[in-house]
Design goal:
Elements lengths: L2 H11 L22 E5 L5 H10 L4 E6 L2 H13 L5 E5 L12 E7 L8 H11 E14 L5 H4 L2 H5 L8 H11 L2 E8 L3 E3 L2 E11 L12
Parallel strand pairs: 1-2, 1-4, 2-3, 4-5
Antiparallel strand pairs: 5-8, 6-8, 7-8
Helix pairs in contact: 4-7
The structure holds S-adenosylmethionine (SAM).
The site of S-adenosylmethionine has 19 residues, from helix 1 and strand 2.
Amino acid sequence: MDLSNINLRYSQLAKTECCLSCGGALNFSKIQPGEICVDLGSGRGTDVLRMAELTGDEGFVYGFDISDGMLKTARENALKFGVTNVKFIRSELENIELPDQTADLVVSNCTINHAEDKAVVWNEIFRILKRGGRFVVSDIYATSTVPEEYRRDPVAVSECWAGSVTKEEYMETLSIAGFESVTILEDSLPYSKGKIEVSSFTITGERPGRKPCSCGKR
Ligand SMILES: C[S@@+](CC[C@H](N)C(=O)[O-])C[C@H]1O[C@@H](n2cnc3c(N)ncnc32)[C@H](O)[C@@H]1O
């Protein structure tokens, strides 16, 4: 995907109220007070602000996005609502500006389909998650391979399905990245887009390993 086009398109949408999500990732994320959370493709910052409230003053939430307009709106919203335990960072999904094993939870809604190389993104999610950390992601998948003619079609790109892959490819990428306990939490009926059909789903999974004990004992 051309990042300058994505920046432009989403910056135009930053001040609108149109829904940009494709599932209820946040509803399944079971955020605990004190957790460090990340939202990839944080848009106007709505989910980041909700997570900030749930994780509380002991926790922190990072929102990453590539669109200057979205980042500006998200920062304005944080200021407007007086939310201080958040930070919005301009960063590509493929190169997340966080140290290894930072996050308890990575959330993303309708964004990973935009990434040219999904394997790199999932490797990054694995890298920034703590051992035992989890992801909850809503995204679009295609029921058959998306024909090349749609890959750069502005309408298909703007509808978030031009870059989608099949469910099988999606699951294989997660498995190769090393995630365990991968579960589909919700899955829509297929709907037509161009000559193909696509669906939206919400999935969760864990980086293997035991969570560090929060009580201070070993
Ligand atoms: C469909 S919107 C979803 C926004 C938000 N998650 C929501 O549910 O309202 C996709 C968001 O991902 C961002 N985005 C797209 N491609 C990206 C990339 N390669 N790196 C970082 N952000 C990206 C866009 O700027 C946009 O804000």
